[in-house]
Amino acid sequence: MSKLRQTPSQTVGPFFAYALTPEQxxxxxxxxxxxxxxxxxxxxxxxxxxxxxxxGKGEVVPDAMIEIWQADGEGRYAHSADPRGSNIGFRGFxxxxxxxxPQSRFIFDTIKPGSVDxxxxxxxxxVVFMRGLLLHAFTRIYFSDEAAANAxxxxxxxxxxxxxxxxxAVRDEKSAGAVYRLDIHMQGPNETVFFDV
Amino acid sequence: MTETYAPRDWSSQPPYLHPDYKSTVxxxxxxxxxxxxxxxxxxxxxxxxxxxxxxxxxxxxxxxxKGGEPIGERIVVxxxxxxxxxxPQPNMLIEIWQANAAGRYxxxxxxxxxxxDPNFLGGGRCVTxxxxxxxxxxxxxxxxxxxNHDNAWRPAHIHFSLFGPSLSTRxxxxxxxxxxxxxxxxxxxxxxxxxxxxxxxxxxxxxxxQPSFALGYEFDFVLRGRRQTxxx
Lengths: 197, 232
Prior knowledge:
The complex is a heterodimer of chains A (about 200) and B (about 230). Chain A is mainly beta. Chain A has a domain at about 25-40 and about 75-95. Chain A has helices at about 15-20, 20-25, 145-150, 155, and strands spanning about 45-55, 65-70, 95, 105-110, 125-130, 135-145, 170, 180, 185, 195. Chain A is globular and about 40 Å long. Chain B is globular, with a radius of gyration of 19 Å. With about 230 residues, chain B is mostly beta strands. In chain B, a hairpin with a 5-residue loop joins strand 7 and strand 8. The chains are: A mainly beta (about 200), B mainly beta (about 230). At the A-B interface, helix 1, strand 5, strand 6 and strand 10 of A face strand 2, helix 1, strand 4, strand 5 and strand 10 of B.
């Protein structure tokens, strides 16, 4: 049987906010998701992820949209393909535009994911959208304080060693809470590793 | 055996770098993508069903009215979400956004001097039924100028966002209207491989047209399909 052609992607454009992130931007429409993934008293270590998106000139991108998808603190996804079931109350999806923070950051309040399948280090899946990207870009966020697990991670191992640091969020040791920072570089010497998922 | 997703068909997708669309020049990744072996991280994805919808979310002619009706030509946009094997994709969230009939977005960054419509937001969402069908009622969006090049105009379009069943099936795209003379001049549309551009154009359908109310357009989505792969 011949397959149907996959629908081509088109850019999210600059004007997504009132439909995809309306509450964050102050529009009168409900959001399905935002920058906080915490609901109720979901178990797990509270963390914050912060970062900016930078273009090929090193300038901050103020009209990007970042989505994150992650497992719960035990490494379980809230999805039927994960046979183990998930923590009740942790959906694991966040979405934030870079247009409301004064420094054009994305900021996610979430819990630190556990190791998904024993082999992979704790990580967060990231999807990057913006004007000028005709097709979204997939990347991942790993954690600087998981050095041993990162060293065994098969996805990180598939990345050239000199580029792995573009995927590892650095924990801010001075912060009272657990804050991790990672900028997404679309181009340049520190171009973020993007994956063909 | 476990289910993973067939690869993205790069022959149907636009490239990251398409210099005619100037914003790609400083934003397109320049290094090759690194292939990832699909794991639970890629074959799972966000799940949003009917519980995430408000009553009027799929009717953009009513979901933001402030005492009047939006201006413009009412249309129905309907179709199916399928995977590349032709399997309907039920219970899938679809989000849309668009300009109003005058070609103006509600977004504060849009400074095009066309009127805002106090009764129209331009955002909506719905969830596909058991056969993968969806339906929106809205206003036909207008064309609008943009700064990409001299006298640049975007053809009328509606933005669509779909998750599909997994992270790997994520799709954000734009639907255009048949016969639009602006399409040939639009670098975003033209960035799509030539033999796949028509996949982005809706079809006028008299059978979806509601008498004395709204013209009907049909537009189907095709997402990456499942495949069986041995477990390691």
